[in-house]
Amino acid sequence: IILKRPAGGMSCKKASAVKPQEQEEEIDIDLEAPETEKAALAIQNQFRRFQKKKK
Description:
The protein has 55 residues and is α+β, with helices and mostly antiparallel strands. The chain has one domain (2-54). It has 2 helices and 2 strands. The mean pLDDT is 77.
């Protein structure tokens, strides 16, 4: 899977108006790597905790 994001890091209207011809940065993530799995689990746990707290 390749994730794409604007080269500036953040996307906002001012930044895109100033530099409309920026190329998107491609990020290649190895989904089979153990570090990726650990990171995904950590993100999911934080999100679940946030959802519980929100109710």
